[in-house]
Amino acid sequence: MSEPQQPGSPRKPRYPKATSTGPGRVLIAVYGIFALSATARAGVQIAGQFSDAPLAYTLSALSGVVYILATIGLAGTGPGFRRLAWFSVVFELVGVLAVGTFTLLVPSDFPDDTVWSDYGIGYGFIPLVLPFVGLWWLRRTGRAG
Predict the structure, then answer these.
(1) Domain that holds residue 56
(2) What pLDDT is stored for residue 2 in this prediction?
(3) Fewer CB within 10 A of the terminal residue: the chain, N end or C end?
(4) What angle do CA 32, 116, 114 make, to 5 degrees?
(5) CA distances (Å), 134 to each of 9, 69, 87, 100, 139, in order?
């Protein structure tokens, strides 16, 4: 049992739990796989057929960069990495919702799919679920304990 806090006494600093522990390792692995696959896919598309669907291929490249940043942020320790993880996962959520909606409303602007097309249907909707899991994990590990 801990001692009660005396008025005026200094408080012990409470730090968030590292995001790379426990289930966070699986989350980092999934982000790493998506970072690799989205970046490789975009690279092949941009190198071979960029003029066919420049918007779609550019968005695929952007999603790859976002997944790379999220992986680095979640795997790192310290407040800078945590901020990077928050930024990239929130950006990912906004991106998948925006691109997913746009590809359903104006499919003619997307002659080829992106990772985030139709909310990630081509990837089993993992791109839609992943940012929610990432945000939950960041919030859960952010609680000082």
Answers:
(1) 23-141
(2) 53
(3) N
(4) 95
(5) 36, 13, 11, 19, 9
Instruction: Report yes or no on 13 lying in a domain.
Output: no
Give the integer Cα–Cα distance in Å for 54 and 106: 15
Q: Cα–Cα distances in Å, from 8 out to 5, 11, 144?
A: 9, 9, 21
Let me know if residue 7 belongs to a domain.
no
Q: Closest Cα partner for 88 from 114, 116, 56, 66?
A: 66
- Overall domain count for the chain: 1
Q: What is the mean pLDDT of each run of 10 residues along the chain (145 residues)?
A: 58 71 93 96 94 92 97 94 97 97 93 92 95 96 71
* DSSP 8-state symbol, 145: -
Residue 2 lies in a domain: no
Q: What is the 3-state secondary structure (H, E, C) of 121-143?
A: HHHCCHHHHHHHHHHHHHHHHHC
Using CA atoms, how far apart are residues 99 and 111, in angstroms rounded to an integer? Answer: 13
Sequence-distant (≥ 6) Cβ neighbours of residue 60 within 8 angstroms: 38, 41, 42, 45, 114, 115
The three-point CA angle 59-121-137 to 5° equals 80
